[in-house]
Amino acid sequence: MAHKVFIDGEAGTTGLQIRERLMQRADIELIQVDPARRKDADARRAALAAADVAILCLPDAAAREAVALADGLAVRFIDASTAHRVDPDWVFGFAELTATARARIADARLVSNPGCYSTGAISLLAPLVAAGLVDPAEALSINAVSGYTGGGKDLIGEYERGEAPDAFVYALAQQHKHLPEIVKYAGLSGRPVFAPSVGNFAQGMAVQVPLHLNGRRLAALHDALAAHYAGQQFVSVVAPEARVVPTRLNGTNRLEISVHGNDENGCAVLVAVLDNLGKGASGAAVQNLNIMLGTDEAAGL
């Protein structure tokens, strides 16, 4: 019997890619609302009532509204918005984060999908904090570049019309919406300085964490990360290359980590590469859905 899934917000960038990954699967039946009624509360509640799992691809306020609409219903949620990422009642949907993460996702009714930048930053920092190689209070900075699809319809339109610059840096007031989840799930006690940017390419992302080694060695950082992700299907630690290409994992649910630097001069850069719409959004949502349904974790990916 097919599992029934409702993508609330399927017309958006993330929702469309989730739909593409699910529509060919015989084990999934997609519940849909007439586009003319997509904001109609009664129509949405009826779809939520019919679904086993609802995936929310909505602005934060609308995601909270969807959860409220489902009051009394048995439907489970995956929320791709920022609305519930640090809510203690929601399970953070990063399956590779800890040894118990998958079991918690599998049992959860409420799962928050990680953000794209935070997926990269947390993947780099959380294992090193857990291994005692990064102090939770250490002064840290995070730099990143993403494809423009992460900016939503307005920014996509700017680039597609040729009106946007080749690249820009933004959110330097240190209030980016991904910072709270980075602090919480990387295990930090201090707030890192975050400098994200957007490049003139649709998808792809590279997240970098520079470190002063202060007695640490590159091999120790690499080995701790490799040990943490050993045996993982979608996250791996790879050898550093001279050029890091943010688009090289596009169209996949993969995330690759590398450790760069020089022991002699005491500097390192940790790098995570992922598709901001893959492991950073739609791919991760499908991975979480598979875990929640008890199906092959790689189905549709």
List the helices and strands and how they pair.
Layout: E1 3-8, H1 13-22, E2 28-31, H2 41-50, E3 53-56, H3 60-69, E4 76-79, E5 91-92, H4 101-107, E6 110-112, H5 116-130, E7 141-147, H6 152-160, E8 167-169, H7 179-186, E9 193-199, E10 205-212, H8 218-228, E11 235-237, E12 255-262, E13 267-274, H9 278-293
Parallel strand pairs: 1-2, 1-3, 3-4, 4-6, 5-6, 7-9, 11-12
Antiparallel strand pairs: 7-10, 8-9, 10-13, 12-13
Plain-language structure description:
The chain is globular, with a radius of gyration of 19 Å. It has 301 residues and is of the alpha/beta class. It contains nine helices and 13 strands. It folds into two domains: 3-114 and 281-293, NAD(P)-binding Rossmann-like Domain (Rossmann fold); 116-276, Dihydrodipicolinate Reductase, domain 2 (2-Layer Sandwich). Helix 1 (13-22) packs across helix 9. The strands form two sheets. A seven-stranded mixed β-sheet has the order 8-9-7-10-13-12-11. Strands 2-1-3-4-6-5 form a six-stranded parallel β-sheet, with helices on both faces.
Task: Jot down its keywords.
six-stranded parallel β-sheet, alpha/beta, Dihydrodipicolinate Reductase, domain 2, 13 strands, seven-stranded mixed β-sheet
Q: How many structural domains in the coordinates?
A: 2
Helix content: 25-40%
Terminal Cα span? 21 Å
Supply the number of helical segments.
Answer: 9
Secondary-structure element series: EHEHEHEEHEHEHEHEEHEEEH
- Main sheet summary: 7 strands, mixed
Average pLDDT figure: 96
Q: Strand portion, in percent? A: 15-25%
Provide the gyration radius in Å: 19 Å
CATH architecture of the largest domain: 2-Layer Sandwich
- Placed side by side, the strands forming the largest sheet appear as 8-9-7-10-13-12-11
Shape: globular
- Which parts are unreliable, with pLDDT below 50 for 5 consecutive residues or more? none
CATH topology of the largest domain: Dihydrodipicolinate Reductase, domain 2
